[in-house]
Amino acid sequence: MTANLTDLTGTWTLDPTHTRLGFVTRHAMITKVRGAFNDFTGTVTVPAEGIEGAKAEVTINASSIDTRNADRDGHLKSNDFFDMENYPEITFTSTKIAPNGSGGVDVTGDLTIKGTTKSVTVPFEYEGSATDPFGNQRAGFEGTTTLNRTDFGLTWNAALETGGVLVSEKITLELEISAIKNA
């Protein structure tokens, strides 16, 4: 296993079968709902000069949202939330990748949801790299960040009789990345 970010030069492709682009939010102020986007592509290119020159791009098929409830997923796909008919993709393009002092990297970039682009920074822990049984060199990262969904035009909500709202504005992104080095 490699434990050093300097060994990651080259182009890496996200492995969708071992990567999770997940999120969690509060529902009815008393419980959490978790979900993920299951259809996406992404690459990270790290030049020989090092991780500071790296670039990352991810494109998510917004209709691949999965919260394990078909009715809720249908509502999220509607104009009330993601308006997937008009905005079928969510994109992320890095603007800066830098070591974060704890052995990982901070990835800052432009996240576009429902036609609105905002800068987001995700601190990632580097889990290491290894060659799998099929000869692929893999690298693993885990990152979490919080954003406000209303900043991206996802403003639908419903008031509760007991006070509060049905869906929290705060969304926590939970990203578990497995990337394979391109040959």
Q: What features would you describe in this structure?
A:
The chain is mainly β and 183 residues long. It has one domain (5-181): Lipocalin (Beta Barrel), CATH 2.40.128.110. It has one helix and eleven strands. It has one helix at 70-77, and strands at residues 10-14, 20-27, 31-37, 40-46, 55-61, 65-66, 89-99, 105-113, 116-131, 137-148, 167-181. It has an eight-stranded antiparallel barrel. The radius of gyration is 17 Å and the shape is elongated. The model has no long low-confidence stretch (mean pLDDT 88). This is Polyisoprenoid-binding protein. Belongs to the UPF0312 family.
Q: What strand line-up does the widest sheet have?
A: 1-4-5-7-8-9-10-11
Alpha carbon gyration radius: 17 Å
Q: What's the story with the biggest beta sheet?
A: 8 strands, antiparallel, barrel
What series of H and E elements makes up the topology? EEEEEEHEEEEE
Q: What multimeric state do the chains show?
A: single chain
User: Helical element count?
Assistant: 1
What class do helices, strands and sheet pairing give? mainly beta
Key features of this structure:
Lipocalin, mainly beta
Chain-wise SSE layout:
Elements: E1 10-14, E2 20-27, E3 31-37, E4 40-46, E5 55-61, E6 65-66, H1 70-77, E7 89-99, E8 105-113, E9 116-131, E10 137-148, E11 167-181
Quick overview:
With 183 residues, the chain is mainly beta.
